[in-house]
Amino acid sequence: DGGITQSPKYLFRKEGQNVTLSCEQNLNHDAMYWYRQDPGQGLRLIYYSQIVNDFQKGDIAEGYSVSREKKESFPLTVTSAQKNPTAFYLCASSSKSDKINEQFFGPGTRLTVL
Amino acid sequence: ELKVEQNPLFLSMQEGKNYTIYCNYSTTSDRLYWYRQDPGKSLESLFVLLSNGAVKQEGRLMASLDTKARLSTLHITAAVHDLSATYFCAVVYGGATNKLIFGTGTLLAVQP
Question: Which end of chain A is more exposed for a tag (fewer CB within 10 A), N or C?
């Protein structure tokens, strides 16, 4: 089945630690995105990548880093510089080959800082 | 600054009633999406609206887009409990980068 997977589903982090969230897609999509969702709020864009080995900052990139070494994978690292990382993180991907360019979302990772 | 505003933020409805959720956005865009989110879950795509006057319907939900007014509506007809969820609209910005900016969401609770 084609889709987007994220792991882990739940993640607990101690203050001062870096953690990496995984996002994999087998939809052959060129573009991938990371969003953060806080309780009762909409999604905010952290980073996005249009092509392998290239990525750009979104609206709230501070304290986060990404890489895009493979088309299928777009991992997100939450660094110790992120002051309030507890949130629900969603990865998405989209194809650039059609006008709709709809973004499809993974199941999410819920990160809690202890 | 690009803003996307939804109202109401919370909507409690009785089964069988009709209601409309509104989504206003502050800049021109060629695409608008509606998503549904169940508690603790990811986003499920409902509608993609591509042009002025576009109307899409699926079951008890109907979405429309007025690009001149920068307004989209999500109309619920004869609500049922299964429609209880949070509904988001999202507007494309940034041209070819396909970035989305989301509204704050409308939490819909359908009471029996």
Answer: N
